[in-house]
Amino acid sequence: MIAADPIEVLLVDDHELVRKGFRLMLDAQPDLSVVGEAGDGERAVHLSRRLRPDVVLMDLHMPGMDGVRATELITAELPGVRVLALSTFDLDENVVAALRAGADGFLPKDVSPEELIEGVRVVHRGESAVAPRLLTRLIGTFVRTSPPRQAPAALTGLTEREREILVLIARGRSNAEIAAGLSVSPSTVKNHVTSLFAKIGVRDRAQAVIVAYEAGLIHPGE
């Protein structure tokens, strides 16, 4: 049996010691390989273009070009590259900005080695590495303080069931919880989720939750 290629990771942090620590954690795993390091957002974008890593581990707070802008450029130009944002704080306005910019999840910088490793694997699989209830608390805190945004016109094209599922996603429900609550199979929920994501133009749950809040389908505290 041929072993799968390791997941290639680019580390982005303005502190060399932090990068060194993350490298030691990740390179110790047989399925992960650190292929480069950057100390600022501009270098991160350059290396992402050159190396095409599978996952970029992106610190959000850096001098010069910050992690939010770098995330925006990378995800717009390189859709195959996944970004996992890192923040010093659980509730950080920049995290919401990074999720809007296309990040596939976020972790606090004091995350355990096991959580960091699993987070890289999760975003590489195309999933969102954010605990659903933490995501809704985070977005509920900061979306309400942001200027109102026009909801995607595609929301009007959602079926009643798709709209219902979008609201449940925004309330922090997992696919399994939605399936149990609606008395349908998980595969049926997955199909609805895939369809509604395509209709509203988002690529993961994080962005879907933001759309639901901005469209007024759900309000902080619900």
Which percent range fits the helix content? 40-55%
> Widest sheet: strand order?
2-1-3-4-5
Could you give the distance between the termini? Answer: 50 Å
Reported for the largest beta sheet, the result is:
5 strands, parallel
The oligomeric state is single chain
Mean pLDDT: 85
Gyration radius, rounded: 18 Å
Secondary-structure element order, as H and E?
A: EHEHEHEHEHHHHHH
Q: How many strands in all?
A: 5
Number of contiguous helices: 10
Molecular shape: globular
Poorly predicted residue ranges: none
Q: How would you classify the helix and strand content by structural class?
A: alpha/beta
Strand coverage percent: 5-15%
Keywords: DNA-binding, Phosphoprotein, Transcription, Transcription regulation
Organism: Nonomuraea maheshkhaliensis
Pfam family, one: GerE
Domain HTH luxR-type: 151-216
